[in-house]
Amino acid sequence: MRYEIIRCQFSTKKEQGMHLHQDIEILYVLDGSLAIEYEEEAYFLGTDQFMLINSNVRHGYHAVPDCGENPGSGKADEILLGSLLIDNKVLTEMFGGEQQFFWCNSAQEQSESYEKMRYFIRQVFNYYQTTEGQGIALKNSVYYQLIYLITTDFIVKKGMRKFESLRGIRDERMNEILSYLMMNYREPITLKELADRLFLSHTYLSKYIKNNFGMSFLKLLNNIRLDHAVSDLLYTDKTILKIAMDSGFPNQAGLNHAFRECYHTTPAEYREQMAEKLDRGEQEDSSQVREKVEQYLTSNLVRTSEAADSIVQEMEIDTTQKEEIKRSWCRIINVGAASDLLRFDVREQLRYIKEQLHFEYVRFWDILTDEVMIELKEKNSRYNFKLIDQIFDFLMEIGVKPHVELGFKGKDFFVEKVGLKMLSQNMENQIMLLEKNRVLLEELIRHLTKRYGISTVEQWYFELEQNAVVQKRVPIGHYFEAFDAIAEIFRNYVPNVKLGGAGFCMNYVGEELPGIIAEWAKRKHHPDFISIYSYPYLVKEHLLDAGRNPYAPDEDYLYHQIRAAKQVIREAGFEIPEFFVTEWSSTLSNRNCLNDGCFKSAYIMKNLIQNYNEADAIAYWVATDIFAERIDTDHLLFGGCGLLSRDGIRKPAFFAFSHLNHMEHYFLGKSRNAIVSGDGKGLFYICCHNYKHFNFRYYSQDENQIEVEQQPRLFTDHEAIQMSFKLHPVNNGIYQVKVYSVNQENGNVQDAWRKLAYFNALSVIEIQYLQTACQPALTIHKAEAYDHTLVVETRLAAQEIQGIVIAEL
Questions:
Q1: Residue 337: HSE in the Cβ half-sphere, 13 Å Cα cutoff
Q2: Where do the H-state alpha helices sit in 463-545?
Q3: Is 465 annotated as catalytic?
Q4: Rounded to whole angstroms, how far apart are CA atoms 543 and 537?
């Protein structure tokens, strides 16, 4: 079994009699009120208050009625208690064998240190069931941060007023008795031997121990011995007999008797029970207690307070170093199958997105399918371009250009999760059909040029992907044949047509990409752009077959994929005009509730800032949740990847693009968490974020099974960051600073829906209310520039994004 310096337990036990133990204990009231007896002192703890119990100090507690300060805490005397037991032997060894004592009682004192303690204690609670993987390292790091804080901010030295009362020793004789027993517990100590050593009668000593320690001499000695025995039972492979002898018991029967009296079971049974529980990641808590703890942890997110430390980031901007900004994020947006563009609701949402976010191109696919009256066959294909005309006419009407993916995507692949079903889709036949339908391709491009003009069609993009992101890959030879056929026909009618591909997925074809690019460079028809997809999965059939979560843990996955693909192209000496990421997101699943919340907005802004100027276009997947509507999407939110919900409500992801689209004309600089722009005339705009990546919990479950209320527990931490922007040179004087914030409480449709009790049967008026209510918070303040330098500061909560407007008054 794994040894841990801190053990975590939970209890709903309303009363615990006076007792003592060697381990230091922190009692934390998760719910209810508690009266604690600490030697001769009495203390009261309310909900979210805590107290440290020093080693070998008698203490007990009982639940008390709530005085009304903690509404909603349940019945008057109900209690939910968390307990952290810190190994005092290890702690004593850290201090060279000297026993340390501490004063820590949040009901008696308030300070920044207590806020830090509360944060770390609740972090321990958060990870208490972690039993494997990187979660163990994370949990241990929290243990030692907590111990460091206790030994730094709460230690009480000898000579200080509280020292004697904290250690529970009222006179030197008590100290002498306890020290002797702890040093010699392995020996066959008797009451008479100890009395002789202290020059006392054994009758007087027996009464003295009973009066001052609250128990008999034998029970006090056995308590000390049992403390060591339990540790050996849990964390060593010693036999029961060996443990009995090492702990000072005369034989195994003596250990069994003392153990049964205290734990109501035998040492062997206790070891077996605890081994099973530890292997299952359980504590000595009933399922009912664990359920209450999970409810508490889910509804009480661990966040740093304003008083606690936050990460500080500083950014210095030279306003004279500027270049024209490149808006790669709003060039292309994915919308879905061509037939979706015939739907009224999709059109209305796309019209709104165009007006608000100013995307230049709309990317869609499945244009050669039955849904748009194209019957593609090896021979005698039939077609009617009427519906295709309606699609292109609409795009022209709203002022966006088409980015046409000529390949095929199954409509049901991107719904629940990445799995073997996705990998089993074979699109090779459809790709080969394109090469065999030259007449249809020629009729299509000729029709488009006649209807819209060559100069207009030259501004469009046509793409042919290799279907490498999830489906079985089309052999590259077949792909090249299809691409060459399209290029030969399209370029004959539109010489400057923009034609490219192949939609490479680096984690699936990465090893083969150098050879593919080298071969493509030798062929007659070269692409006008090369495209890649980026979804953070390790898509391997053997992993999925074994039931493994395929999610890649790389926080900078998109950045690394872009750079890897560009390096392959560069090393091949393949000159291409443009490089696109034509699909990217944190997930392929449209049943992942993280798509609906603040995580997604921070994820988008983080990636778009990090990959600024790394690609000519970075096309987000996907514009609207309507794309993923199926029979199971009767909820207001269902985890779709869209920027807008099915009902047209702006999701936090929408505001990430909205903030970025307010960037000024000139790029001035960026860091990992921010990008700064200006208009060259004293107006500045900053986008910043506090993105938090997943922890081990996210990788241990299917993404479509995540519950909305459990989201906060899926991230590495919830610490705020304090950002400071130093702009110079600027004009001296007063500046107005407007901060538009999207966080858990503002601009978050998930939180707004929670306040409506997650009801789905909402009226039109209620939907309109949500559409209006879901918008960023606005704060305005002033800042003054001195010595031609302006400093602007802001604080961001976890997963918060901000757009900051700075204007000279």
A1: 22
A2: 476-493, 506-509, 513-522, 541-545
A3: yes
A4: 11
**Of 617, 628, 620, nearest to 600 (Cα)?**
620
Q: Which residue, chain included where needed, has tokens 């207009």?
A: 456
| Class of residue 264 by CB neighbours under 10 A (exposed 0-12, middle 13-18, buried 19+) | exposed
Give the pLDDT confidence of 468-519 residue by residue, as tens digits: 544 456 788 888 999 999 999 999 999 999 999 998 887 655 678 898 999 9
| CA dist., res. 163 & res. 101, Å (int) | 7
Q: Tell me 285's DSSP state.
A: -
Would you list the domain boundaries of the chain? 6-166+287-299, 179-264
User: How is residue 370 annotated by DSSP?
Assistant: G
From the candidates 405, 416, 463, 465, which is the catalytic residue? Answer: 465
Q: Which two tokens stand for residue 68?
A: 């009304």
Residue 332 DSSP SS3: strand
The architecture that CATH gives domain 179-264 is Orthogonal Bundle (1.10)
CATH architecture of 6-166+287-299: Sandwich (2.60)
How far apart (Å, rounded) are the C-alpha atoms in residues 563 and 581?
11
Gap between the Cα atoms of 55 and 61, Å rounded:
16
Tell me how far apart the alpha carbons of residues 700 and 549 are, in angstroms, rounded to a whole number: 7
Under-70 pLDDT residues of the chain: 1-3, 66-77, 97, 131-135, 157-172, 175, 235, 276-288, 298-311, 410-429, 467-473, 507-510, 539-549
Q: Calculate the CA 482 to chain-centre distance.
A: 42
Domains 6-166+287-299 and 179-264 share a fold: no
State how far the Cα of 144 lies from the Cα of 779, in Å rounded to an integer: 39
Query: Measured between alpha carbons, how far is 126 from 187 in angstroms, rounded to an integer?
Result: 41
Query: Does the model's pTM come out above 0.70?
Result: yes
Residue carrying structure tokens 């009692």: 27
Query: Residue 183 corresponds to which amino acid?
Result: M
SS (H, E, C) 128-178: CCCCCCHHHHHHHHHHHHHHHHHHHHCEECCCCCCHHHHCCCCCHHHHHHH
Asked if 413 contacts 471 with a C-beta cutoff of 8 angstroms, the reply is yes
Q: How far apart are CA 182 and CA 200, in angstroms?
A: 20
Torsion of CA 208, 213, 214, 218, to 10 degrees: -80
Distances (CA, A) of 570 to 521, 524, 559, 567: 12, 19, 16, 5
| Cβ 563 vs Cβ 510: under 8 Å | no
CB-based contact 227:22 (threshold 8 Å): yes
Look up tokens 């209305």; give the residue.
Answer: 348
* Token couple for 106: 């949040």
Q: Dig out the tokens for 726 from the structure.
A: 């130093």
Strands 529-534 and 578-584: parallel
